[in-house]
Amino acid sequence: MEKLTDEQFEAHRTMMLRKRSRGPENLQYLTDQYWNEITNQLYVFDRVDAEVKDFKSLQKIDLLTFFKVRYTKHGVMFEIRDEFYKN
Fold first, then answer.
1. CB 70 within 8 A of CB 81
2. Helix 47-57 vs helix 6-21: angle between axes, to the nearest 10 degrees?
3. Domain range for residue 79?
C-alpha cells in the first residue's frame, strides 16, 4: 500500500468516484439499496451521495492511516496482495 504512487492512488480514486457517481444501474438496484437501508434500520437514503463527497476529499495519507490502524496486529502490517487491485 505504501508503494502506491500518488498517480496510482489518484487513478483508483477517480475510478471509484466515477463508479459511485453513475447512479443506479436500474430501478431494481435502487429499490434494493433502499430496502437494504430499511431492513438494516439505518435509513441513510443518501448514502451514495455521502460516499462520493467523502471520496472527493480522501487523500492517500488517510488511506494509509486507516490500513495501519485497522489491519495492523502487534505492529506487523498484514500483506495486501496486488490481485485485489487489478481491474
1. no
2. 160
3. 27-85
- Find, among 54, 73, 79, the residue nearest to 2 by Cα: 79
User: Domain count of the chain?
Assistant: 1
Question: What residue type is assigned to position 25 of the chain?
Answer: E
Q: Evaluate whether residue 73 is within a structural domain.
A: yes
Q: 49 lies in a domain?
A: yes
Answer whether residue 72 is part of any domain.
yes
Angle, helices 60-70/6-21, rounded to nearest 10 degrees: 90
pLDDT-based confidence at residue 85 (cuts at 50, 70, 90): very low
Pairing of strands 72-73, 76-77: antiparallel
Q: Which of 7, 15, 14, 8 is nearest to 82 (CA)?
A: 8
**What are the pLDDT digits (tens) for 37-72?**
999 999 999 999 999 999 899 999 998 888 777 777
Structural domain includes residue 40 = yes
